[in-house]
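User: Here's a chain of 265 residues. Predict its fold as tokens.
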Amino acid sequence: MDLRGRFAVVTGASSGIGAATARLLAREGARVVLMARTGGALEEIAAEIRAAGGEATAVAADLGDAVAATGACERILRDAGVPDLLVNNAGAGRWLFTEETPAGEAVTMMAAPYFAAFFATRTFLPGMLARGSGRIVNVNSAASKLTWPGAAGYASARWALRGFTEALRQDLAGSGVGVTHFVVGKVSSAYFAHNPGTEARIPTISRLIPTLTPEEAAAALLGAVLRDAKDVVVPFMLRVFWFSERLTPGLTRWLLRKTGVRHLG
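Assistant: Prediction complete.
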């Protein structure tokens, strides 16, 4: 995909990977709409992009809410048209055992990333299909395949997003609309500060996997878009673990379990 003059929508764009991706896309010549719940932070990123000579608009909305998400995406369709690229990056959630997860928080974790990606895609997809082109990128966590103790709700939501990605591929085969599953390891963003206690539950074996900056993750995502990649897992050592789960699933799960947090019970 040549991004010059193309139209991109990035969700979860107020910080971290989403903000860095929006900046890169604008630098490549794309018109960008940034979406997230936090309107103030979102507008700051959009203003920064415009100050650097790019085209960016901020749209604040709770994408995990069906009515709010659909309404916001429909307004984008009316005002800016059908996206050439949709980056579903919205996501949240603490790492908790099942019994310590408040019911409402379990719903919130499923709302973003899974429902946020579903609602945005559902609204923009008909226009992409009518045009016969476009790309949808679902940004996911290693927990979508490599599960560890103490993150039941979080992992479940990430598996749901991976399932949605695979289902989309089946639905869209031959349509001209491509789907990318972008899986990234630990990123040095504000995520762990916003979810206290979560970082302590990272299995110690994951120390073998380098931490990426949001800019490094965004650069890998941009590369995936430019080459129309189907599946991207970064960094390299995470890719090693990803394939080890396929080749030796029992051993990989045992290592994650033995080096992860112990059950509270």
